[in-house]
Amino acid sequence: MLQDSDNKRVAKNSIMLYLRMLVTMVVGFYTSRVVLQVLGEEDFGVYGLVGGIVGMLSFLNTTMSGATSRFLTFELGKGNKSSLSSMFDSALIVHIWIAVIVFIVAETAGLWFVNHKLVIPAERMIAANWVYQCAIVSVVVSIIQVPYVASIVAHEKMGVYAYIDIINVSMKLAIVFLLVHSPWDKLIFYSVLMMTVTLLTGFIYRRYAVRHFEECRYTHANSREKSKDIMSFFGFNMFGNFGLFFNMQVVNILINNFFGLVYNAASGIAVTVSNVVSSFANNTIMAFRPPITKSYAAKELDKAEDFTILGMQMSLFFFALFAIPVIVEVKTLMRLWLEKVPDQSDVFCRLLIMSILFETIRRVCVISIHATGKVKAASLFLGILLTINPLIVYLLFKAVHIVSMAYVSNVFINIVLSLIMMCLVKRQIPEYSLKRLVFCVAKMLLVIGGTMTIVYLSVRSLPATLLRMLLSALLSTILLSAGTYFLCLEKNKREWAMSFIRRKFKRN
């Protein structure tokens, strides 16, 4: 069972990540609003579309990030410092090679695709190429910094991770003020400044990691065996992550070809809102990743299972805490946020949030699967289903020509994947209880669905104002908290929660 110190550590890390997220959310909403106004729908769509092409190549970055984080955390769990140093050096070398590969592919096939296949007005092609080159530099730097970020997370220094990210978004806020008064082409200027922020953030991550963690000081201790282990994990995991990015970017390209840049702008707005909401789950998932992996590495399977169950409950809870008011009030939110709301933005946003709900279930399951190192089956299912989705979207566009079908299809794909991943967790770790995991998910989904229904029925007759948004948020918080506490949390977790609250009140 989890000790009080385990719960305190995870709670502290979660709080730091939520502090980071709140700053990121406020700045993100403001900056995206101003950037949309300054750039206009067309240039905003160009930035999201062209930058997304390089983003599709950065699936390698995401894949390696997962592999590096898993291996560094696993070595920390075993407590072998020499092996940890060798693992970091091996990971750094592998990332440098990946960055070189991405650069070559981006400057050849990717560059040809941008200039010959995307539907971009001729007068904006020069600006589009500036966006593309800046995006390439940003992705290469992001890939090389992954081992340093992974070390910070593996050591559970979430406060440091949060502060550096706050510095990152503060620089992006400064960019907005410079952009408004820029005498140059605003799309080009924005791209160059965003690239500069990425370079500075990468330098800060590396500087901190080298100064505070011995394994991050490159000593040529990398071994072929460890590089082989990382690449083997990477090879299988790459297929799943390729499907994830292929699905996202190809669907965006299909929207562009069938419906035009205006709907790419709507998609970009919806993605911005849904990403902010999903960050509430992402923070919890990140906080639980190291303890799950370390517990498995130390062969404490009961503790690893408890962390997995609690991680699932808390990830879904914090996601729903903000997802429910947004789903109910998304039209009002967008009207208050943007002067001009692109058509279909609210529909895209609702569907994306529903998709992320089931994606959250999948991602928590994948943490336990990754801890075992046996990622082949999970990656194959993930990669195949997500790679097929753009074909389904293409056929739906041809059949009914309704742009929202792109996101309806994505919801059903993620429902199927969440069910598959729960079964794979049991297959990879027989000591886990599938019944306990399924009941945990089912009860959380029941509470979330019930809360959303009650909130919608309670406020739908009221005028769509800021006051109604606040009422929706308050009502959903009360209902979701009560439902999670009484129906979802196991007895020992409820007792710990009450003890924690009593101690806080006594101190005050």
Notes on the protein architecture:
The longest helix has 54 residues, at 4-57. The protein has 15 helices and no strands. The chain has one domain. By secondary structure, it is mainly α. It has helices spanning 4-57, 59-78, 81-116, 125-154, 158-180, 186-212, 224-259, 261-297, 301-337, 345-372, 376-400, 405-428, 434-459, 466-488, 491-507.
Count of helical regions: 15
Q: Radius of gyration over alpha carbons?
A: 23 Å
Uncertain runs: none
Q: Mind summarizing the main beta sheet?
A: none
Order of helices and strands: HHHHHHHHHHHHHHH
Termini gap = 29 Å
Helix and strand composition category = mainly alpha
Proportion of β residues?
under 5%
Shape label: globular
Number of strands: 0
Mean pLDDT reading? 82
Count of the domains = 1
Helix content: over 70%
Which descriptors would you attach to this protein?
87% helix, 0% strand, mainly alpha
Detail the topology: elements first, then pairings.
Blueprint: H1 4-57, H2 59-78, H3 81-116, H4 125-154, H5 158-180, H6 186-212, H7 224-259, H8 261-297, H9 301-337, H10 345-372, H11 376-400, H12 405-428, H13 434-459, H14 466-488, H15 491-507
